[in-house]
Design goal:
The chain is mainly alpha-helical. Helices cover 65% and strands 4% of the residues. It contains 42 helices and seven strands. It has a five-stranded parallel β-sheet, with helices on both faces. The chain has a two-stranded antiparallel ribbon with strand order 6-7. The longest helix is centred in the middle third of the chain and has 23 residues, at 410-432.
Length: 794
């Protein structure tokens, strides 16, 4: 990992090319770290750049990236707040590696599949879509996935059932999704992309790391990214659950605030803190000298106005004025605007500060016709940054520009923001083609303009716009936590920029309520229901959204209460009735579930999806013949309904009609080759038929789709066990339990393999542990009693 020594001339030229001014201590610390192997206790895996706005964090981050790439041969990627989720952050890393000649092929392929499946889930109508459960609510129902054995924490749920039918929680999830999320391809990928994509990313990062000296991943504006990325990055640094991060990886986190001690407090020995202060006077003078500014009165004025903040020093250095311009009451922004002699440019610079982000279309919408050609000039200004293809004013410059316009002419301020709101509304409507707002929140092409529309309306008329923004937030929360956080953050920023205490307070409360992603929008809906002044229709919508979110975290009593109150307010609400059906089915109240589905059918007669739900409910209740009678017409009406085919295949399996079950599952997989749910069940059918090779091939396909999943390993262990390969089975169960020590089903299955090998003490120990994890695991209780009564145990 050494590097060739450079000549003095090369070093001088490199500094000139980088426009190097100051920050030598920070840069030297970063450079010195590359001279320490990862095994050295002095080596730091994380650098944390932090300081107030304007001190040059982004500039230093860019310099660190350039240094790592040019001087140390590193592959680098830089992520900023334009990444609105962990998958988007991963995508940014992959895209930037590809531009450096290192494509992450398997990850990119799976990412493309995720985006396609998510798009299908969000935009393709299903039968009964308008009244069925929202895609957003369904896409966040991760708790049901635990029953698949596809995520950590599966044990408590999977252990509640006999190992013969695979983790019954699968069926709860499938039922909850089926009215809108008809295409069940890659269910886990859509609901929990981080768990699925991370192992692929880490695997290919390790392959890349073997070919280069270093990988350097930089995360800018970390005060915004941190709440989103902290849990993921901590997992990558401290656990192998998602895979292993190569040791020659260095992370750079740059933000205004200190790292969250709850996440990073015990990692101080691997983090190097790089606090940034404003330039020293010497550093600021060095920059001014480099710009040709040496007149002492002007230099002193620039130092006074800028507070030696690098962004303001650079801005004023572009047009420093003369000593005769001195005004002790001036600010840096005042001086910049005064020194810009062209009134059209000055007006364009002010108007361009109104939108949160700028592209040429937005700029043309915000400036008068005579300023429309100035976008290129604007982007060249020192306080304009480029992020994700959009221009953004530096906060230190934008905030006073907004304050100046808001206080100088409130009417002009309101009119300008209203025009921008109308512009974004037009773009939203054109992109959506008349899509219902409830569904539009799930599409970036709709929700992006919608959030900007609300931002500008809240800036223009805070009190008047707030009720509508809060009402719209119900649908934003329904669309999932990422969209909900963007909506809440929009309120915070609008409150700050409009200087509206009420809007700002609402935004901050909502951001806090949405802090725990696992809780989805439960607390946010509680705030709106308690204090949002919602009309009856909005109250129904909030209750239904909260009900589905509560169902997703298995708060069944609360979910049922929300659905019941929604039905009382709106007896014709299909989503609420269907929610009641799903909750009743999840708690084993099958008669009540069927009654609720009857009500749905009365409201939406002839809907195929309702009949499928009835069939699924019958299957879950063990009424297999009735389930077939309901599923057969569904498949007859739509032979390509692979979800119904999978359900019927599982039903036929339960009836012992193995060949017919295999035919259904074959057809479901033929229609959807990545249908992991059906592949898992076909593996079980093939194993039952003695086709171990076919079963293992199916599980290989599942593993390629969803690597490192405990449930898949549990199934693989069963294939070996049913084939009499008990030692191999135990080895696989051990791997599954290493991934999830609470996986009670794997413990029960391992007990059976141990018993077959005559290891009765080990078998009994496994069953004792399984029952301790889940006292309701009836099968394990029965097997334990059998072993205890057999007299063979000690």
């Amino acid at each position: 990992m050494g590097r060739e020594r450079l000549s003095m001339q090369e070093l001088i030229q490199r500094r000139r090319n980088a426009g190097f001014v100051g920050r030598r201590r920070e840069l030297d610390a970063f450079r010195d770290n590359f001279g320490l192997p990862p095994e050295d206790a002095r080596h730091r895996f994380v650098f944390h750049v932090h300081g107030h706005a304007g001190v040059g964090k982004t500039w230093l981050t860019l310099l660190l990236e350039r240094t790592a790439r040019q001087e140390y041969g590193a592959l680098t990627a830089r992520v900023d707040e334009t990444a609105r989720s962990v998958p988007e952050a991963m995508a940014a890393i992959s895209e930037q590696f590809a531009r450096q000649g290192r494509e992450l092929t398997a990850f990119d392929r799976r990412l493309a599949s995720y985006r396609q499946r998510r798009h299908e889930a969000e935009s393709v109508p299903a039968v009964g879509e308008r009244q069925g459960p929202s895609t957003g609510g369904m896409v966040t129902a991760r708790a049901g996935l635990a029953g698949l054995g596809l995520v950590p924490g599966v044990g408590a749920l999977a252990g509640a059932v006999d190992p013969v039918p695979l983790a019954e929680g699968t069926d709860r999830l499938r039922a909850a999704l089926s009215s809108r999320f008809r295409d069940h391809k890659d269910v886990q990928l859509v609901l929990d992309p981080v768990e699925t994509l991370s192992p692929l990313l880490l695997r290919e990062l390790s392959e890349a790391a073997a070919t280069v000296p270093w990988l350097v991943l930089l995360f800018d504006t970390y005060e915004r990214l941190g709440p989103l990325l902290d849990p993921w990055l901590r997992t990558l640094l401290t656990s192998e659950r998602l895979g292993t991060l190569p040791a020659n990886t260095v992370l750079v986190l740059a933000g205004q605030t200190r790292l969250d001690p709850g996440c990073w407090g015990d990692l101080a020995d691997v983090v190097a803190e790089l606090p940034l202060e404003p330039f020293t006077e010497a550093e600021a003078r060095q920059l001014l000298t480099a710009k040709g500014i040496t007149d002492e009165p002007v230099v002193r004025e620039v130092l006074r106005l800028s507070g030696r903040l690098p962004v303001l020093v650079s801005t004023l250095a572009e047009n420093p004025g003369t000593g005769g311009d001195l005004d002790p009451s001036a600010t840096a922004v005042d001086r910049f605007l005064k020194w810009e002699r062209d009134p059209v440019r000055r007006s364009a610079a002010l108007a361009g500060a109104l939108p949160r982000r700028l592209n040429e279309d937005v700029f043309r919408a915000v400036v008068a016709d005579e300023g429309a050609g100035l976008f290129g000039w604007l982007r060249s200004l020192p306080f304009i940054g480029d992020r994700d293809g959009a221009a953004r004013y530096h906060d230190v410059v934008r905030a006073p520009m907004l304050r100046l316009q808001r206080t100088t002419s409130p009417q002009r301020w309101g009119a300008a923001h209203t025009r921008l709101a109308e512009t974004f509304a037009g773009w939203r409507e054109a992109a959506a083609g008349g899509l219902d707002p409830h569904d539009g929140w799930r599409l970036d092409s709709w929700n992006g303009p919608r959030l900007e529309e609300w931002y500008h309306l809240l800036c223009a008329w805070p009190s008047a716009a707030l009720p509508g923004a809060l009402r719209d937030g119900i649908d934003a929360c329904d669309a999932g936590p990422a969209v909900a956080r963007r909506w809440a953050t929009t309120l915070v920023e609008a409150g700050e920029d409009a200087d509206s205490d009420v809007v700002r307070a609402w935004g901050l409360h909502l951001v806090d309520a949405l802090g725990d992603e696992r809780r989805r929008g439960i607390e946010a809906m509680g705030l709106l229901l308690a204090r949002g002044g919602l009309d009856p229709a909005a109250r129904v919508a909030a209750l239904v959204v909260r009900g589905w979110h509560r169902r997703s975290v298995e708060e069944f009593d609360g979910a049922l209460g929300d659905f019941q109150r929604a039905v009382e307010l709106d007896p014709g609400n299909v989503r609420a009735h269907f929610g009641r059906a799903v909750v009743h089915r999840a708690t084993g109240e099958f008669t009540a579930a069927m009654d609720a589905l009857d009500r749905v059918d009365a409201l939406e007669p002839g809907s195929t999806w309702v009949q499928r739900e009835r069939g699924e409910t019958c299957r879950r209740a063990g009424r297999y013949e009735e389930a077939l009678a309901r599923l057969d017409p569904v498949i007859e009406a739509d032979p390509a309904d692979h979800v119904a085919l999978g359900s019927r295949g599982q039903t036929r399996m339960a009836l012992g009609r193995i060949q017919e079950a295999l035919a259904d599952l074959d057809r479901a997989i033929e229609l959807n080759g990545d249908y992991a749910w059906a592949l898992l069940r076909r593996a079980r059918v093939r194993s039952t038929l003695g086709d171990s090779a076919g079963a293992l091939a199916d599980l290989d396909r599942v593993e390629s789709l969803e690597p490192g999943v405990p449930g898949t390993l549990g199934e693989r262990g069963d294939v070996h066990r049913f084939a009499g390969r008990y030692e191999e089975a135990i080895a696989v169960y051990d791997r599954a339990l290493a991934l999830d020590p609470g996986y009670a089903w794997a413990l029960g299955s391992r007990a059976m393999a141990n018993e077959a090998l005559g290891r009765h003490a080990e078998a009994l120990a496994d069953l004792e542990r399984a029952v301790a994890l889940n006292p309701g695991y009836a099968w394990a209780v029965a097997q334990r009693e059998r072993l205890l009564s057999s007299g063979d145990s000690p």
